[in-house]
Amino acid sequence: MRDLDQAAASLGATATATWLGRLEASGFWRDHFGRQPFASAGGGEEVMPLFTWDTLDRVLAAPPPIDLMTVRAGQLVACGAPRGRRDVEALFRSGVSTVVRSAERHDRALASLVAALGRAAGGEAHGQLYATPAQTNSYGWHYDFEDVFIVQTAGTKDYYFRANTVASDVVLGDRPDFTAITRETTPTFTARLLPGDWLYIPARTWHLVKCVADALSISTGVMSEAEVAKARRMPAGWGARARESRS
Q1: Coil, strand or helix: which one is 205?
Q2: Cα distance between residue 64 and residue 141, in whole Å
Q3: Which residues of the chain have pLDDT under 50?
Q4: Domain span at residue 148?
Q5: d(Cα 10, Cα 108) in Å, to the nearest integer?
């Protein structure tokens, strides 16, 4: 088992180093990070093997606790926790997505990816795995307090995003009012992600996702130290980096 874990960690580290090297060479960190969304057609192919249906089977079969959500159209769906691909595909038939939060706790390759992105972006990072059925959306318009990096590993999704000018002063610990999107006047941009494509969404940017074909994607959120510093309350599972810096 130790050899398998080491092989997975090595796979994740190699794939991530190649991807991040491409980001550095393209000027992403200088020109886009923290400024505006950026979509790349291709460029994330090395990361694709880190999240397959086999990966999802392993993660869902991992010893509990697993931070798992089943959602449809922005609402949590009460159902038995899926424990493998068959369960997830059964939920697909009801239009229900499976989301695994902090997936890096259950897979060494994903842990390598998440840790490297956290170092590169300068914040605390956690990874989410999305398994989403066609013709659905897991959430409505919303924004996150993290910078988000998404790699599409299977299927197709359409992403819509807008600059946030109506809720930019909300901080962690406040209750976000996502209906504020109705007051937004900024233009809407869109990007379609196919397998191997990737997308960066800056913190606090409005976004909406619609799944075109049954899809798998990795979403890594990186919380900056500035966001943590002004937080009224940290969400569950976050704040480890801040605690370490104080100790």
Answers
A1: coil
A2: 31
A3: 242-247
A4: 2-246
A5: 9
Tell me whether strands 206-224 and 198-201 are parallel, antiparallel or unpaired.
unpaired
Quickly list DSSP for 19-62. Answer: HHHHHHHHTHHHHTTTTS-EEESS--GGGGGGSSHHHHHHHHTS
Residues 6+ apart with CB under 8 A from 191: 37, 39, 158, 159, 161, 197, 199
Residue at 210: amino acid letter:
K
Rg of the chain taking only CA atoms, in angstroms: 17
Q: How many domains does the chain have?
A: 1
Give the CA diameter of the chain.
54
Query: What is the CATH number for 37?
Result: 2.60.120.650
Asked if 91 and 71 touch (Cβ cutoff 8 Å), the reply is: no
Question: Which residues, other chains included, contact 162 with Cβ-Cβ below 8 Å and sequence gap of 6+?
Answer: 181, 184, 186, 187, 188, 189, 205, 206, 207
The pTM of the whole model exceeds 0.90: yes
Rounded-to-integer distance, Cα 160 and Cα 86, Å: 30
155 phi-psi bin (left φ>0, alpha ψ -120 to 50, beta other): left
Beta strands 189-193; 147-162: pairing state? antiparallel
42: exposed, middle or buried (Cβ count in 10 Å: 0-12, 13-18, 19+):
exposed
For residue 91 the two structure tokens come to 């939920």
pLDDT at 245: 47
CA atoms of 149 and 128, how far apart (whole Å): 10
